[in-house]
Amino acid sequence: MKYTERPTAKPGLGGRDRAEFGLRQLFRDLHRRMVNRYPHSTQARLLALFVTSVLSATPGTAHAKETLTWVLRDFPPLTIFSGPQTGQGAIDRLMPELIARMPEYNHQVMHVNRARGTQMLQDPEAFACDPTLLWTPEREKIILFSIPTYATPGNGITIERSNHGLFAPFLTEDGHLDLAALLASNTVKIGIVAERSYGPVIDKILHATAEQDGLILHYGNAAVGSMLQMERMDRFQAIISYWPEARYHAQQQGIPLTELEFFPVKGAPKYQFAHIGCSRNDRGRKAMEIINREMRVLRVTKLIGFYADWMVKKEEYLRDAQTFFDEPEN
Question: Which of 26, 43, 129, 197 is found 20 to 30 A from 203 (Cα to Cα)?
Fold first, then answer.
């Protein structure tokens, strides 16, 4: 948050009095600007965070704070960068809550694609965090992971219903798709997001695929939305994604949901747990201690509800969520 106007001190005030008067004017003006832009609860959080930042920069107070960079990608329904629901994703709503509880740092948010975000987290000199990461053994070598923060329904296969016949031979009795057998058949092409992890089961199948020509990688922003358009042009016949994510993009593009089908992948879990990932260095470790402390509370009191608002079966998700964090944490 930046504020460039400098209030004018009253005549006759000494240097310290002028400074104190200036701060009072600054906070009053800031509050007045907030009234018409934010709900009351958000006003309070942002004002408290701003006050802390100003006081920490005042001469005679603590040394300048480090800047923690949060790398976010367009990843509905977690983060939404455009359209009428901009900023209303589950993680969009979480970030002010978490940032307000980390006054030790200045915070900046950077919008990136998956590849750029990974590059920043791998940089040993960077100080960055991503609040939407799946854990993998490969990532843990270069990224520091938090405790589990939320659970998302597992990734699966989204197709156009008109292509159902291509996939029917690979469906199990309970409606799961045998992805390994489908890829081995070399009968369809599938779109995937470059450098995204889809969870250990799907990742293992993709890495073991001998016929890589059947996998079409997308590197750009809003990858799933773009791939839905390419699927409708028959560039490929399926995409791998989360169903809430594909569903969101379809609605934004005016694609009737009745024209799409989603299949969970055989052997993959119903839910996958996501984490906050930070730079694996001393600054990242120090920040992670605070993140873990605060997320033990926020994941239950805030984030479960934020994410449930996007679920097709909201009540089922909330029931399942009662046991999400019962197991001992690694």
Answer: 129
The CATH 3.40.190.10 domain(s) of the chain lie at 65-152+272-321, 155-268
| CATH 3.40.190.10 is right for the domain spanning 65-152+272-321 | yes
The three-state secondary structure class of 118 is: helix
SS3 157: strand
Each residue of 28-62: pLDDT tens digit?
444 444 444 444 444 445 444 544 444 444 444 44
Q: Which two tokens stand for residue 146?
A: 């938090």
Q: Which CATH class is domain 155-268?
A: alpha beta
Contact 306, 274 (CB under 8 A): no
Q: Which of 323, 204, 206 is nearest to 273 (CA)?
A: 323
- Note if the bond before 124 is cis, omega within 30 degrees: no
CA distance 267 to 255: 29
Q: Can you tell me the distance from the alpha carbon of 53 to that of 2, in angstroms, rounded to the nearest whole number?
A: 11
